[in-house]
Design a protein that fits this description.
The protein is built from 2 helices and 7 strands. By secondary structure, the chain is an alpha+beta fold. It has one domain: 2-Layer Sandwich (STM4215-like). Strands 1, 2, 3, 4, 5, 6 and 7 form a 7-stranded mixed β-sheet that branches. Strand 4 and strand 5 form a beta hairpin. The longest helix has 15 residues.
């Protein structure tokens, strides 16, 4: 699952800390400023070459719209068009990471925290 590699990559680039304000496949309600990285399935795998095409969603939440938007933009800048590399030591080899659409404003949740969503498609070895 690519969410772990992506969460660790965000941590390595000072976006947050996994388990503190970056979570994998979970959205704890206990804090206001946080990021969740979800595995969201993907597209059909290639039947001739050992590659997979997984997707992920990254949710950014904050009480401050400016903070949430800035964090989402930073994540987009780090991941969009990332090509031919591993994001973390020992992780998957990413042929590419591309944003699907653009950053989406979800709105405010029941606690009035602003939420943005970013979806990415990838191609990975194996």
């Amino acid at each position: 699952m690519i969410a772990t590699d992506i969460a660790d990559y965000l941590e390595d680039n000072n976006i947050g800390t996994v388990g503190t304000d970056i979570f994998i496949d979970a959205l704890p309600d206990t804090q206001d400023d946080m990021i969740a990285v979800y595995n969201t399935g993907g597209f059909d795998a290639d039947i001739d070459i050992p590659v997979s095409n997984p997707t992920c969603e990254i949710l950014v939440r904050s009480m401050s719209a400016a903070t949430a938007q800035s964090t989402a933009e930073s994540i987009k800048g780090l991941l969009h068009q990332k090509m031919n590399s591993t994001l973390v030591t020992g992780g998957y080899y990413f042929y590419y990471v591309f944003i699907m659409g653009d950053i989406n404003l979800i709105g405010r949740d029941e606690k009035q925290r602003v939420e943005y969503s970013i979806n990415f498609r990838t191609k990975i070895r194996g």
